[in-house]
Design a protein that fits this description.
By secondary structure, the protein is mostly helical. The protein has one domain (7-117). It is 45% helix and 0% strand. It is built from three helices and no strands. Helix 2 runs antiparallel to helix 3 (87-117). Keywords: Membrane, Transmembrane, Transmembrane helix. Pfam families: DUF983. The chain crosses the membrane at residues 55-81, 87-109.
Length: 133
């Protein structure tokens, strides 16, 4: 199996950062009521997806940065198409886009955060399995 195992592949396909084969999220669809559910560990290499309690608190800062970027892009696009941007218009559009992007940003922030701390080690057949206690 000669697939591309880049970081971008891992983020786009929501794969394990250690082996980039196992799925982190059990449901592939973003827009369901269970978009926040995560597997406890990788089914291929055994990597824990919550290495310690409170591990994903840092992902909140990543999510904040993504939302700031969304705000700036929305403001720029709104100012291109609307002559006079009002505060109410801006707040309304930000609320709608932030809520619409919530599942995407939630997963992306967690994926980015775990990829910072768990490094790629190769295919699951070439790395030792991690045990679950």
């Amino acid at each position: 199996m000669n697939q591309n195992r880049s970081l971008l592949y891992s983020l786009a396909k929501t794969k394990c950062p250690r082996c980039r084969e196992g799925d982190i999220f059990p449901k592939a669809t973003l827009y369901s009521t269970k978009f926040a559910d995560m597997r406890e560990y990788c089914t291929c290499c055994g990597q824990s997806f919550e290495p310690e309690p409170g591990f994903y608190y840092g992902a909140m800062y990543v999510s904040f940065a993504l939302n700031v970027g969304l705000f700036l892009v929305t403001l720029f696009l709104l100012s291109l198409f609307v002559e006079e941007v009002t505060m109410g218009m801006l707040i309304g559009l930000i609320l709608v886009t932030s809520l619409g992007m919530l599942p995407v940003f939630f997963r992306l922030a967690r994926l980015l955060w775990i990829n910072i701390f768990v490094k790629y080690e190769g295919p699951s057949t070439q790395i030792p399995q991690k045990s679950h206690i």
